[in-house]
């Protein structure tokens, strides 16, 4: 028993045990300081940087402090940092050859950070995915779609394909393409559509609404009505303008035609059409005539 106590006392007072205690203290205190300092730095820069830059600053500062703390802890345990750095360099080269796609995404992420085509909180459209930007990470961008799904888009895809930022500017334009009958008075139609825009509280007075004649269609005169609204009111504008235009055209007696086809002979005369109630009898009568 006395020998075991002496052995335990010797271990407790040994330099290795004290080094392990110091390394553990370095890690605990360092992680706490890294979290506090990174949060404090992010809060201090909230008014000077956008959400994307604040997030990146917070992450970079946190991991830098953690790396320094980890290096100090390893040094207390007696590890040779020179050997570790050499091994880390070799490992980095090997991983670079093994993960070329990840390296491409990482470089593309640096281009996105420098170009800043969007920020955290913006609504973007990439391919078939449209949603709010949740985070911009070194390898990918996370989106939350409007039906509350998370979509991960690799940074390389964002650099190579067309990207649309739906919330970059404060106002947006709604283009409504409307077809009306050929007998419609275009002046009356213009007055009706402009009246709908003027009565809509969401529609902006500046820029002014636009009435544009597009073309003579197959079955209708094609018109475009373009109106503006603030970005956050765009969905309200889209719903209310379509409802208002339909109601106004019905009230004014302006027809919205559907595609029609006229069948006729070579001389332009219409083909005769006969309505038959009893099909078997009609077939028997046709056979008798033949």
From TrEMBL:
Belongs to the MscS (TC 1.A.23) family. GO terms for cellular component: plasma membrane. Residues 60-100 form the Mechanosensitive ion channel transmembrane helices 2/3 domain. GO terms for molecular function: mechanosensitive monoatomic ion channel activity. PANTHER family: SMALL-CONDUCTANCE MECHANOSENSITIVE CHANNEL. This is Small-conductance mechanosensitive channel. It is found in: Cell inner membrane; Cell membrane. Residues 102-168 form the Mechanosensitive ion channel MscS domain.
């Amino acid at each position: 028993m006395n020998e075991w106590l002496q052995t335990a006392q010797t271990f407790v007072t040994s330099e290795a045990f004290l080094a392990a205690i110091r390394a553990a203290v370095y890690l605990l205190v360092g992680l706490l300081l890294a979290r506090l300092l990174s949060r404090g730095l992010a809060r201090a820069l909230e008014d000077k940087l956008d959400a994307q830059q604040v997030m990146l600053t917070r992450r970079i500062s946190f991991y830098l402090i953690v790396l320094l703390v980890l290096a100090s802890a390893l040094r207390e345990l007696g590890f040779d940092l020179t050997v570790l750095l050499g091994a880390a360099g070799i490992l980095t080269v090997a991983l670079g050859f093994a993960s070329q796609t990840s390296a491409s995404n990482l470089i593309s992420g640096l281009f996105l950070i420098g170009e800043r085509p969007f920020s955290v909180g913006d609504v973007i459209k990439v391919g078939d995915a449209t949603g709010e930007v949740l985070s911009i990470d070194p390898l990918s961008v996370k989106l939350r779609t409007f039906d509350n799904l998370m979509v991960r888009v690799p940074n390389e895809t964002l650099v190579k394909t067309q990207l649309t930022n739906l919330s970059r500017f404060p106002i947006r334009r709604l283009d409504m393409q409307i077809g009306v009958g050929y007998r419609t008075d275009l002046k009356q139609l213009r007055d009706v559509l402009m009246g709908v825009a003027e009565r809509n509280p969401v529609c902006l007075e500046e820029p002014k609404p636009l009435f544009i004649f597009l073309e003579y269609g197959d079955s209708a005169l094609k018109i475009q009505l373009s109106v503006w609204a603030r970005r956050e009111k765009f969905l309200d504008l889209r719903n209310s303008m379509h409802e208002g235009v339909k109601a106004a055209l019905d009230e004014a007696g302006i027809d919205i035609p559907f595609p029609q086809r006229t069948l006729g002979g070579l001389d332009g005369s219409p083909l005769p059409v006969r309505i038959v109630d009893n099909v078997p009898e009609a077939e028997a009568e046709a056979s008798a005539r033949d």
